[in-house]
Amino acid sequence: TTINMLATLLRPDGGTATIFGHDVVREPQVVRQLIGVTGQYASVDEALSATENLVIFSRLLGLSRAAARQKATELLEEFHLTEAAKRPLAKFSGGMRRRLDLAASLIAQPPLLFLDEPTTGLDPRTRAQMWSTIRRLVDTGSTILLTTQYLDEADQLADRLAVIDRGKVVAEGTPDELKQSVG
User: Fold this and answer.
1) How large is the angle between the packed helices 94-105 and 50-60, nearest 10 degrees?
2) pTM of the shown model
C-alpha cells in the first residue's frame, strides 16, 4: 500500500508524501518521471522475447528505434540475459523474469527505484545474483526503497530500515541500531 501511494497508483487517505520535494498527490506526473517500480509480479509480456519487451518499454518512454534497441542490448548484457534475449518469456525461469522486470524499470534511469519484494520465491543462487545487482545499483548512485519480509535481506542490503505496522512506522534506524534495540 505504501509503495502504491508513493508511486502515485493509490491516493493516500491522509498525510503527505514527497519524492525529491515533489508532492505525490499534487505533482504525480513529476513523481512518475523520478521513479521506477519493480513489483512482486513481473510486468513484462509473456508472449514476447526479452528483447521485444525492453524495446517496447523503451519506445513507450520516448526512445527512438535505434536507441531502444541499443538500450535493450545494454540491459540484457548487464542482467546476464543476452543468451536468452530472443526466447519467449514463457521459457524463462522466475529469476530470469525478475531480472528482466528490473531491467525494464531501469530504462529511464530513474533516481529512485521501488523494489517490492524482488527476491520472493527465488532460488538461493538467483537471490544472490539479485542482491549483487541491487548493491551495484546503489554503488552507482541509485536510491532504492526495498520492501522485504526477509530479515537477512534487510540486514544485508539496507542502510536504513523502517518497520511498518498497520500503516505506521513502529521502528526506524540502521540494521545495527534496530538489532541493539530489541536485544
Assistant:
1) 20
2) 0.82
